[in-house]
């Protein structure tokens, strides 16, 4: 009993240190787990094309897709296997699209058509959304060919 009266403060401090250490290690493990979560965005490629109805402009953009997180590896693998076919079909679609479709700021119809082309190359519907970045419309006179 004398031992308990004499060292209760030390025991309380040690218990607090142990509890804080457990909380800190749990938080660190959760943060480390979050860092290892792969992105659900997969790059499809860079595209540059000229519409057949408007030869005065060249369009350029990057195409990405957001895929189902559980099927990311499958989608990435299939997109890589069919890369050339996808590029060919996307460029054909874009070259033959009406110019007003390319001038739409929201590009809703264009995105829907791109999803159809991409889903045609995959046997499972793993694509959730299409992202278009770096959209440029350049006059033909400013585009230089290597």
Helices and strands in order, then pairings?
Blueprint lengths: L1 H34 L5 E9 L7 E11 L4 H10 L1 H14 L2 H5 L4 H14 L5 E13 L7
Antiparallel strand pairs: 1-2, 2-3
What does this structure look like?
It is built from five helices and three strands, in the order H-E-E-H-H-H-H-E. The protein has 146 residues and is of the alpha+beta class. A three-stranded antiparallel β-sheet has the order 1-2-3, with helices on one face. The protein is elongated, with a radius of gyration of 27 Å.
Multimeric state of these chains? Answer: single chain
Q: What string, H for helix and E for strand, traces the elements in order?
A: HEEHHHHE
Tell me what the CATH architecture of the largest domain is: 2-Layer Sandwich
- Report the portion of residues in β strands: 15-25%
**How many domains?**
2
> How many DSSP H or I helices?
5
**Rough outline:** elongated
Structural class: alpha+beta
Q: How many strands appear in the DSSP assignment?
A: 3
Give helix % range.
40-55%
First and last CA, distance: 90 Å
Task: Show unreliable segments.
Answer: none
Under CATH, the topology of the largest domain is which? Tetrahydropterin Synthase, Chain A
Rg over C-alpha atoms, rounded to the nearest angstrom:
27 Å
Mean residue pLDDT: 85
Order of strands across the biggest sheet?
Answer: 1-2-3
